[in-house]
Amino acid sequence: MLRRYAVVLCVFALCLAAEVGARRPLLPQKSGVSKSSFGSVPDAGDVDMFTLTNANGVEIRAITYGAIITSIRVPDRSGRFADVVLGFDNLEGYLKGHPYFGTVVGRYGNRIGGGHFTLNGQAFKLAQNNGPNHLHGGVKGFDKYVWKAEPLQNGLGVAFSRTSPDGEEGYPGNLAAHVTYTLTDKNELVVDYHATTDKATPVNLTQHSYFNLSGDPSTTILGHELRIDADRYTPVDATLIPTGELVPVQGTPFDFRKPTTIGARIEQPHEQLKFGRGYDHNWVLNRKGSQPAFAARVLEPKTGRTVEVATTEPGVQFYTGNFLDGTIKGKGGQVYNQRAGLCLETQHFPDSPNKPNFPSTVLQPGKEYTTRTVFTFGVAR
Ligand code: GLA
Prior knowledge:
Helix content: under 10%
Bound molecules: alpha-D-galactopyranose
Number of helices: 3
Shape: globular
Oligomer: single chain
Strand order of the largest sheet: 11-12-13-14-27-23-22-17-20
Order of helices and strands: HEEEEEHEEEEEEEEEEEEEEEHEEEEEEE
Strand content: 35-45%
Mean pLDDT: 94
CATH architecture: Distorted Sandwich
Largest sheet: 9 strands, antiparallel
């Protein structure tokens, strides 16, 4: 009898411990940054992992390979923490090839039509690594290099840097790029991008995290609600290159000006949804001015987790993980099926180097490229 009580008590204690472990820490945590080893890349050297924590127990991990964000642990409305981004448990997963999970994308995020552009009368030829087009910086973009990194002096983040040499992937000029991740006690992940060059070059850096705010990537993101502060988007051709027009979202499945469930219209027989196999388009943000301003907000209704995106960029590529097809096994052996994650890639518009009517992406020598995107994690009660 006594033994049975002891067993029941033990099970109860274990359940309680597991529960408490998953919940918001009762005492404020210490913010900080720590560094550990994450393996090494053949011929490219050691890879480090930086773990950022804040006073609320939020934790973000990033590695020097691709400046990849490997995990973001945030609480739900009952204080339960979960990892809300797709990725792998170890470096081998990232080295095997994957669709840019958590990476910094560069030198040019998204597509350049036909893999070519002309700048100051000179023609440049880039890799056609996505059908006829150039995608995400080419065959070996910024996502596949080991970056240098050091913790920020303020103890709240990490600074990554790399110099992309003149001619890398066909782009002109030595480009010195810096990306910092800062985690504040307001549960903000602040991403700062900075670059300088010695020859005029297009630059378009972005962050390619795949969010699933449920914390359970065996479920799709179709039930997440999304709001995008954009009256227009840039429709594309069948190869996902913008036609050049800025078209009103009004009356189309691209109207997210009011919070709308992502799955509500994704299967509508709209030509643009066919081209993208779902959403894989650039929205023209309404935001104005030089400071980060509201771009988009996602809510996962069951857990109440939210992420709000503010940026200095003119556009955001909203991508619903349409090309995930169950062939990749991520963290914990989880299979990533179609729509297991969504991306909100703040950026200049795709194919800007070939679209004179789009805001310019050309960085001139002597000038500074500085953009900022803030992801704020929260809960809706
Ligand atoms: C971006 C592109 C998509 C796809 C993903 C990676 O979001 O717009 O078409 O290439 O990256 O798979």
